Amino acid sequence: MGSQPARVARGLVRASHAAPAVVVTGLATALAAALGSPAGTVALVALAVGTGQLSVGWSNDWIDAARDVAVGRRDKPVVAGLVTAGTLRGCAFGALTVCVAASLALGVAAGATHLVAVAGAWAYNARLKATVWSWLPYAASFGLLAVCVVLAAPGPRVPAPWAVAAAALLGVGAHVANTLPDLEDDAATGVRGLPHVLGRRASGVLAPALLLAAAAVVVTGPAGPPTVVAWAGGALAAVLALAAGGTALTRPRSRAPFGLGMAVAVVCVVLLAQATADIAVAP
Fold this sequence. Notes:
With 283 residues, the protein is mostly helical. It has 2 domains: 128 residues, no CATH class; 128 residues, Four Helix Bundle (Hemerythrin (Met), subunit A), CATH 1.20.120. Helices cover 76% and strands 1% of the residues. It contains 14 helices and 2 strands, in the order H-H-H-H-H-H-H-E-H-H-H-H-H-H-H-E. It has a two-stranded antiparallel sheet with strand order 1-2. The longest helix is centred in the N-terminal third of the chain and has 25 residues. The mean pLDDT is 89. It comes from Promicromonospora thailandica. It is a multi-pass membrane protein.
């Protein structure tokens, strides 16, 4: 069973949605380093994005606590009795406070951009996840995260439109893939996001299509013909995206499609790191 503090700690880790939080934070940090940001800026990006992700994960399980109890989601830490919704609420606002300070330390423009992205994720948790606009916070927040990292980098640069578009496509693809395992439970509690409206089969096709589109943009977006590395990375991303789609259709309750979607994001960021001269351009 373990002690009460140990149970709470396990609950906080589980409620943080640790895997996507680590991936998103790692990708933003890696991109900041690839853009030539000094070590202090890279550390601030990691802190701002990491605490922002924690606030989003904890607020999600806090806001969804009653819904999770209603459908018996024993995989959720509140339902499992590891942590209370009140504790998650306090931790979410605590992480958000650190996120605000770290974001603004990156500069007004970069910080404000990141905070808008985090606000979009909170809006998803609070309301938009239950509407046909559920995809919008993912598109906006992923796109704005790319903008934030470029604005925080040295020099008066802005992100290339193709890089922002690729990040937005990755975000929406990840959203659709992540929603698929819980479609029935969500519908039972009144959640009708875009994947729910489209249905499992259509969403199972849409998720890999969006991920493929993101990979295609990353391969073809930079100036000049794609390199061998770009083609190889694009091919790997395509295989992963198609595997996500196939798994979503054949194993409806599997979380693998979301993991595969995050793997596509990793590949795309590696390709972005190979094209830093084209990601950030003069305003």
